[in-house]
Amino acid sequence: MRASEKTWFGQPRGLTILFLTETWEKFSFYGMRALLVYYMTRQLMMEQQHASLVYGLYTAFIYLTPVLGGVIADRWLGRRKAVIIGGSIMALGHFMMAFEGLFYPALGVIALGNGLFLPSLPGQIGSLFAADDPRRGSAYNVYYVGINLGAFLAPLICGALGEIYGWHWGFGAAGVGMLVGLCIYLAGQRYLPQETLREADRTPTTAASAEQGLKQRFLLLAGVGLAVVVFRIAYEQTGNTLALWINTSVDRRLAGDWSIPATWFQSLNPMLVFLLTPPLVAFWIRAARRGREPSPLRKMASGACVVAIAYLMLAALSVWADGAGAQVSWMWLALFFFVFTAGELYILPVGLGLFGRMAPPRMAATLIAAWFSAAFAGNLLAGVAGTAWARISHGQFFALMAGATLVAGGLLLLLDRPMRRLDPSLTQAPAETRP
């Protein structure tokens, strides 16, 4: 693969293949997720607290299994085989969701397949570039847009099929999306980097000082992961308690008697990712040219604070609605998602790029899996936090979520100086903003 070969935003063709594969994988994941809480509470007749716990456990294990899957991919299977095997298992799980009696086994099968798939696909991004290629960091921004393209389409298609024609149609469409992603990946193999198993065997032994540097790097990244765990307690409420609030407390009428389906609002976040990413990256590039671009951890801390503002807005709206005995206009919800997404873009793609940038080549999938492991703990705690939804007022709940994101922002600021001391290049045009 030639680094000069360009097909999309000046990036290698292999990135286009990874982008489209991830788009359809996320179509399947978010398509099923858009229906999950509604399916449990309406079809399976689960109580809200139980449904929130199941949701939290499922989304948590989606991000736990990659820890083992990344090691298996790096050491034995190879990332290509891991993507193919994992994607096939996930497709099977999505089709199993169409059968009510296979509900819990289907969730387990999807989580297992995801363990191989999730770290192995972005683990191939770095191999598309030379170590000094300035496009390397910005590739993660492109990849993040692919994630959100699938997340945007999924609620519109799978959500509508599930709510209008039946749950099995929505879950089946998610399975078809996974198969489409696998077909794209298989068709684009020639554009992906060649790999050999156990790349570590060909890597020269590092000096003791370098090993010590790696330990410091891993400890700091573990601290970043801890902050992201706290952040995700609030972030992951969008598919859990926020979905329930939208269904009961938001006036979704648009024209006449027609109301916007509740699942469609879950497309607002990824749609806004498309709209906000280009001007945001352009802003970072201009700031870098002036020498004023913040370090990755300062960006992430800023993003956490912006998400806190979004949740404080929901808290105020909930207090007003409870006092007035009225529903909140859907336009306020759209404003919430605008602010929420702006904050998200400062923290999640930047964090993924930071972990990818600091990963040794022989540990690419493993270290990226460590980034996703933060999502495991965050989703698990988000599910536990969701059980408080029925015990306290909605305004109090959203205020607690704002507090969690502020704590995460504070932790990230504390880690900023040690991280910049370890890697001084982080203060100079971070990779995720270079053209």
Describe this structure as you would to a colleague.
By secondary structure, the chain is mostly helical. It has a single domain, classed as Up-down Bundle (Growth Hormone, Chain: A), CATH 1.20.1250.20. The protein contains 13 helices and four strands. The protein has a two-stranded parallel ribbon. The protein has a two-stranded antiparallel ribbon with strand order 2-3. The protein starts with 12 loop residues before the first helix and ends in a 13-residue tail after the last helix.
Tags for this model:
single chain, 435 residues, mainly alpha, Growth Hormone, Chain: A, two-stranded parallel ribbon, 13 helices, globular, disordered C terminus
Provide a concise account of the structure shown:
The protein has helices spanning 13-43, 48-77, 79-96, 103-120, 138-164, 167-187, 208-235, 241-249, 268-289, 296-324, 330-358, 364-386, 394-422; strands at residues 250-251, 253-255, 258-259, 328-329.
